[in-house]
Amino acid sequence: MSAAKSSRPMVSIFMLFGFVTILLTGLLSYGLRYNSLLSAIHTVFGISFVLFGLFHLKNNVRPLLAYLKPRNGKRLALISLAFIVISSLGVVLKLPPFQTVIELGYALKELKPIDRQITETLYTNIQREGQKILVDIKAGPHYSGPGANVLGVTLTATPQMAIWLEDKQGNYLETLYITKSASNGSYLGPIFSSEEVRRPEALPHWAFSRGIQSDDGLMIPSRSEPIADAISGATPVASFGLSSVMDQKYKEAVIKLEVNRPFDYNAYYHQKAFPNDNIYSGSGNSAQPSLIYSSIINLEDTTSYYFMTLLGRGHHSGKDGQIYSDLSGITSAKEMLNRIIVEVL
User: Fold this and answer.
1) 203 alpha carbon, distance to own chain's centre
2) Which of 108, 139, 247, 333 has the fewest CB atoms within 10 Å of its CB?
3) To the nearest whole number, what is the mean pLDDT of the chain?
4) Are 289 and 311 in contact (CB under 8 A)?
5) DSSP states of 24-77 as a string?
6) Which range, of 56-60, 164-168, 303-307, 335-339, averages the lowest pLDDT?
7) Which one has a higher pLDDT value, 145 or 196?
8) DSSP state, 272?
């Protein structure tokens, strides 16, 4: 018996079990939320199935070519090719019934599509030895927009952002990331001026949770009392990932993200919305208030992903650190971020 013939039973059996495993993991992935372990099993068996399939193809080239010679075989080959092309175009162009199948999967998961096209990765606390945490942030259509007008030129405004940990009782644990301007009060001020610009309305929930008051009485960092460079960085201009190291090993924590973009006005939060509020209407930069996202994460489980959900908004001029659940006046600010995924390593 030739080596090819003797190996066929083994290849066939492995392909059978591989197909069953890929089928089961595929169905579970279709109906359940993303799980890294399930994805890894599906990927490994998928690669193995392809390799065994190539080996099987190598040993059966002649019979397969013989199938294509008759007119019926050629017709079946064209039908198969047309099915592949039509299905691919249907998925890309989001045509029914292909898009219906995709949307059904999202409905079962109760989440939007996961687009992991990260354009930049920020690293904080890189000097630490400890447990890593990854935050994958997908920018939405209103992540950036028109900002200040300088000498007749309209600048692009990008969000201020803070990511931090609390315990389940709401006690602040540590900050994982803060945008540079928020970390030292270096917001854009008058051109050719060294004036320090403070924006207590930018990230009020984070500021009050942190609980450190500056010399001027505001609960935000200043030039004289900045936050360490180890957790601060420039504002990314598009989707990005954050890779950080936690200060200590926590069993469970609440991760929060607060985001705010200046000049993002709407019919309710416009430049003259609060004429008696010196902070909101004084600078003319404030617009829709900050939004706060959150998720409870099990820091002992390194196999799951967590999706952060919108809790509410901060105070429009940063007078307190409360989370306001009333979002009736919020419009485009909800579209700054499409989704936020957290992974513990």
Assistant:
1) 19
2) 108
3) 83
4) no
5) HHHHHHHHS--BHHHHHHHHHHHHHHHHHHHHHHHHTHHHHHHHHSSHHHHHHH
6) 56-60
7) 145
8) T
| Spans of all domains in the chain | 3-109, 121-344
Kindly state the tokens that stand for 155: 């600048």
82 φ/ψ sector (left φ>0, alpha ψ -120 to 50, else beta): alpha
Q: Is 162 helix (H, G, I), strand (E, B) or coil?
A: strand
Contacts of 302 (CB under 8 A, 6+ apart): 344, 345
pLDDT digits (tens, 9 = 90+) for 48-85: 878 877 877 777 777 777 777 787 877 887 888 888 88
The tens digit of pLDDT for each residue in 308-338 reads 999 999 999 999 999 999 999 999 999 999 9
Residue 199 and residue 182: Cα distance in Å, rounded? 8
Q: Which of 172, 220, 174 shows the shortest CA–CA distance to 197?
A: 220
Average pLDDT over residues 183-194: 63
Quick one: 262 exposed, middle or buried, by C-beta within 10 A (0-12, 13-18, 19+)?
buried
Q: Give me the pLDDT at residue 288, please.
A: 96
Give the integer Cα–Cα distance in Å for 25 and 41. Answer: 7
Going by C-beta distance under 8 Å and a sequence separation of 6 or more, which residues neighbour residue 227? 175, 178, 183, 184, 221
Angle at 59 between CA 54 and CA 63, to 5 degrees: 110
Strand partners, 275: none
Q: Which two structure tokens, joined as six digits, stand for 174?
A: 């540590």
Length of the chain: 345
More confident residue, 228 or 98: 228
Handedness of CA 300, 306, 311, 316 (dihedral sign): positive
The DSSP letter of residue 234 is P
Query: What is the spatial order of strands in the sheet that 252-260 belongs to?
Result: 232-233, 172-179, 160-166, 252-260, 291-298, 309-313
pLDDT at 138 over 70: yes
Assigned token pair, 235: 């504002």
